Amino acid sequence: MDETDDRTYSWDDRMDDFISILNHNVKVSSDSNKPVSNKIFLNVSLLSSLVFLFFVKHENNDNDIFVQIKDRAKNIISKEIIETEFNDWIRNFQPIKRLLLEYLVIQENDIRITHITNLVEKCNLFFEEILKSEKLMHLIPFTATFAIVHFTVLRESLKLQTPNFGISEFKEIISRYKTHFINTFHQFFTWRTDQITTKTSISNDLNSTSLFTFQANGEVKDIIGNKTVNYFAKSSNDQIFTKVFDLIKLRMFTEAKADFIKMVLHIFSLANFIHDYEPSYNISWPLSISSFWVGPYGTDTFPDGSHNFDDNSKIFYNISEDESGVITKIKLRCGEIIDHIQAFYEDGRVGKKIGDGGGTEHTILNLDKSLRYIVAVKLMFGVGLLGTIEFIFNDGSTTTKFGKLHQLHQITGSLQIGPFGEHNKFRLSGVMGGGGKIKTKNDYGENVAHIAFKFQHVDSI
Questions:
Q1: Which of 21, 179, 379, 403 keeps 20 to 30 A from 130, CA to CA?
Q2: What would the pLDDT profile of 70-84 be if each residue is shown by its tens digit?
Q3: Which among 448, 439, 380, 435 is positioned nearest to 412, based on CA atoms?
Q4: Radius of gyration, CA atoms only, the chain
Q5: Domain boundaries, the chain
Q6: pLDDT in the model for residue 264
Q7: Domain at 192-460, CATH class
Q8: What is the mean pLDDT of the chain?
């Protein structure tokens, strides 16, 4: 970290800088060629680098990485948990922090071995205490951060060849962390879904003297993320209204899950810590936690705020989903808007076509598992449909912007999905969506109305 840098040295900054050093040291992928923000750390032990980055006071930010979790997790965990449980665990961690800081000034090798042996014992016991917590699933951001500390201490123990600790013991601890995260992730996602509440009022008064007999009002609210969508409709039918309602809640949940995964994504690379000692060792994470959808997005589900759904009568809600995998190419047609989009997968599998309009055809070719893949997508909506789309690749390059909304007032929402993590460790692996039509007297065919994307950790396939 350059001490002259005036930015806030955040939780993400510290974690990304450390992972850059780890990847450079173990040379696990092409990402190891990514520049490290301060190359001085490449000349000291990995544990010393971690202590400097995570705990040593910096000019513009004197909070260590565990204190910063409280702010970083505010849209993931309930405020009550952050202010109680997190404070308790930060306080309980202080003896380990003191040992870590002391390690920086120890020069004699025999004293270092004794010190690391003590740290290994303290970290192992601390992990055991975490597993006993009644709030275990809420502690995931804390535990994921501690896992990086714990594994760096264990790696230093391997390097110093301390007594009674070797590869087999390290792999056993990796296995325990993997089991812990798999179990608690599923519990957390169930809890997180319940934090998105819905309220509706739907009526169909046949005796009403009003021109419109159907009236609907509703609200979807993400309690943790503090997001709300309010909606009103008087010309849609109740079946469509219910579908919109479900899609908004789904969209809010997938966004929450993506934010959660972005914070804990480094746990998927825990095997990197023993790469130098057993390069073939890997961890197979279930796709249910190492991949996630984002969306579906459409003018009726996005953005947050107030919506009038009287304009959705041309949306079909014929949403289809691909079986995820390695995408090898994407075809689309577009003119003023996106007419259709279709993904193609390994082994010749063809994804479902979203939309069925005309327009000029474009093809994104030469996508694969590890060298060239999509890490982010930019979307712009207008005229009730998907107006433009642009793809970003793992090397930072982009496609052209497909589609073009020619009138500014037609743009109803825009966003970028991804990349998730500085090291582009998630690839686009699936597409789902549904069609709709422009509200005109002429029939221009079915275009893209809803779209969602699945991202998968690059080590998962």
A1: 21
A2: 999 999 999 899 999
A3: 380
A4: 25
A5: 11-165, 192-460
A6: 93
A7: mainly beta
A8: 88
